[in-house]
């Protein structure tokens, strides 16, 4: 009987600890792993980063140049269920027991609501002003000029490795509800 009670106590403690860890990771602070080269030269494949989730929890708009994690599935609504499921997959990926979900991307905030972002001749302009970007890997290859005004409640994000990044150029502006947190530490 004593052994069964001890096993039950341990099981209860582990379940509570796991539930608390999931809640903290969903709403406060989360470790994650970088997958791919889209943020080089600043973040590299398999780098570990810590993300503050407070801006997502309290629906804050990130600042220019913040490095954020986003849910790239911008054409679907996010729910609390998504917020609770993401930490579980993140734990598995950090432990290298599973791959990082490919819909979670790390990008840099370039435009905020109301901004006009224009890419022409491989250069980035925000509200008509050329943006000097010392953090990018290399100049963008000239592509078809693109101009977009960021709607209310959305942001425009780009990878630092502009020639090898899927970002707002492809999925469009990202709803603020899909900005899951801000990178605050890189290991």
Mean pLDDT: 89
- Kindly report the spatial arrangement of strands forming the biggest sheet: 1-2-11-3-4-9-10
- Top CATH class: Mainly Beta
What CATH architecture would you give?
A: Ribbon
Note down, in words, how this protein is organized:
There is one protein chain. This protein has helices at 2-27, 54-57, 80-94, 168-171, and strands at residues 29-33, 48-52, 67-71, 104-111, 116-120, 123-126, 129-130, 146-149, 154-158, 174-175, 179-186. It is α+β, with helices and mostly antiparallel strands and 187 residues long. It has a 7-stranded antiparallel β-sheet. Strands 7-6-5-8 form a 4-stranded antiparallel β-sheet, with no helix packed on it. The longest helix has 26 residues, at 2-27. The model has no long low-confidence stretch (mean pLDDT 89). It comes from Sporomusa acidovorans (strain ATCC 49682 / DSM 3132 / Mol).
Brief write-up:
Its EC number is 3.4.21.89. This protein is of the alpha+beta class and 187 residues long.
Topology:
Elements: H1 2-27, E1 29-33, E2 48-52, H2 54-57, E3 67-71, H3 80-94, E4 104-111, E5 116-120, E6 123-126, E7 129-130, E8 146-149, E9 154-158, H4 168-171, E10 174-175, E11 179-186
Antiparallel strand pairs: 1-2, 2-11, 3-4, 3-11, 4-9, 5-6, 5-8, 6-7, 9-10
Helix pairs in contact: 1-3
Features:
187 residues; Umud Fragment, subunit A; 4 helices; hydrolase; transmembrane helix; LexA/Signal_pep-like_sf
